[in-house]
Amino acid sequence: MGRLIAVVLFIAVLVPGVLLARAWALAAGRRAVAAAAVEFATLTPEGTATLQRQAQHGRRVRALGWLLGLVGIVVSIVLFAEASVFLWAPALAVGLLVGVVLAEATRPRPRWKLSSPPRRPRFAEQVSLVLVWAMRAMVAAEVLVAVLMWREDNLPTSVGWVALVVPLLTWLLAEVALVRTVTRPLPAEGADVPVDEALRTWTAHLVTAATSVLALLPLGALLLAAGIDLGDRVTEGVDLVPVALVAGGFAGLAAGLAVGVFLLTWLRPVRSTDRALAG
Which of 126, 133, 145, 167 fits a 20 to 30 Å CA distance from 159? Predict the structure, then answer.
């Protein structure tokens, strides 16, 4: 009976990750609609220049993210010596994800004529509130687990600082980008409206996805480590806490990888020549 309960608990803990992946799969439809609107619109010179400038800005700042990843590798070598070889790939991934969020948070404002009086979009029109609040919940959960493990001396000081600072800093940048998507006034010209809508949609989903990955992967690793550590201790009867922690760890890692796959599909910049609905 104890094994059956453990299996049921393990499956139940995996369900939220499946639902999150489903929500991101539905977000692909929003991307297709926004891209199709740009494709079928006759862009103004300002709209074309904006697309080119935004794409160039994104490439430059993401390149800075790769540089941050290389710096992270050097820091890991200094802190962990030979053991740092296992941290090179995570350091590069963290640098790229931080670069993605930084690029969206610092995007230059379009130079087209703005609406007068100023009109602003609703936040729910840019991104699903489920994805945004799920991102915030994941960051909160990751910070809570890191603090608890740190207080119990289950995390080295250097790892604890990274587990706290990186997700929190990325989340703050993501919130800045999300605020900018709803506070910037809409364009006045009708042909520029679909371009503006697509850029806002891309920004909202990119920062939400990147921050979610940076919270889910560390959260999964921390839960998995905590579950394995508790599983090595001898207890009386059936202890379901290690099972729940291990299941939560696997769910976090799997969900983080799934969201990362969706993130890759959003990295391609908005283009007026895309065949969004083809195939």
Answer: 133
